[in-house]
Amino acid sequence: MSKHHHRDRSWAPAPPALPADAQVIDNHTHVASVVPFARAMSHEAVEKGQPEVPVYGVDELLAQAAAVGVTGIIDCGCELPNLQVAIDMAREHPGQVHAAIAIHPNEAVRHGHRAAPGPDGLAVKYQPYHDVSFDDAMAEVARLARAYPKQVVAIGETGMDLFRTGESVAHLQREAFRAHIALAKELNLPMQIHDRDSHREVIETLLADGAPERTVFHSYSGDAAMAEIAREHGWYLSMSGTCSYKGNDGIRESARIVGLNHVMVETDAPYLTPMPYRGRTNAPYMIPYTLAALADVFDMPIADVARGTRETTRTVYGI
């Protein structure tokens, strides 16, 4: 029997709740995507002869998070059809859900059918909405950010991803990133960066164009040298479940370099589930597991780390 056969696809147990005075915000997540992801996980489980996995709706996922002290989220809509989804979720849950919107770097090159396969080896696939040009998609991001100033608290995720996108169109990704930098500065909003296999390119672009005042590396994946640059420029690092993975000493060291007042916490759900539950569906209620990993990094009680990330989140997003 393959090891894959034994993979546990059930939900991880709820972590111990954070103290009432140490409640936190998941500063980058995709809650609407958790629902179909869990449905697929359940389907896989049944195919492998495992029990069905419950599929929770958005309201239930938010309630499960609040029950363990994750009282707010920033939900990221970064594909054209999902921009309004994130905003509507924020409108339906005022004070609990906030929206970040952008055209994801991997999406940016698909608009207008301009993509090229990347090192990931996956074929390029287009959706009907990719018929819309990037400029028109970007104009919609700008329109919505202006139309919903209460809900939209950040521009993101934007940046570069040279794992999913071929070198031949890297310049198009960079142009799209620059458009987002300009918008974030124009609207005086923080910016959430997606940076995969493109640390040098992302930093060069930020330094050339001038970074927004509040620049956040979502699910930070850099090393200590990159953290020194972030510290020098006052950039923020958002830590996902990857900071709990065995090989990621560089990520943990980076958190120490910038310090707790420049560190936030996120799930990037449904992906990047923290240890010891890697491989299961991630959701905002899992944040305390990542905080526990950060508590080890900073050698501090989990409640103090929670409070620190909360203060940083308030500073960055004004929520």
> Structural class per helix/strand content?
alpha/beta
Oligomer: single chain
Q: With helices defined by DSSP (H or I, 4 residues minimum), what is the helix count?
A: 11
What portion of residues is helical? 40-55%
Beta content comes to: 5-15%
Helix and strand run: EHHEHEHHEHEHEHEHEHH
Q: Which residues sit in consecutive blocks of at least 5 with pLDDT less than 50?
A: none
Sum up the overall morphology in one term.
globular
| Distance between the amino and carboxyl termini | 49 Å
Characterize the biggest β-sheet: 8 strands, parallel
Strand ordering within the main sheet: 1-2-3-4-5-6-7-8
Mean pLDDT figure: 96
Counting DSSP E segments of at least 2 residues, the number of strands comes to 8
Rg is: 19 Å
Notes on the protein architecture:
The chain is an alpha/beta fold and 319 residues long. Helix content is 41%, strand content 14%. An eight-stranded parallel beta sheet has the order 1-2-3-4-5-6-7-8. Helix 10 crosses helix 11 (302-317). The longest helix has 18 residues, at 170-187. The mean pLDDT is 96.
Notable features of this structure?
single chain; 319 residues; alpha/beta; eight-stranded parallel β-sheet; 41% helix; globular
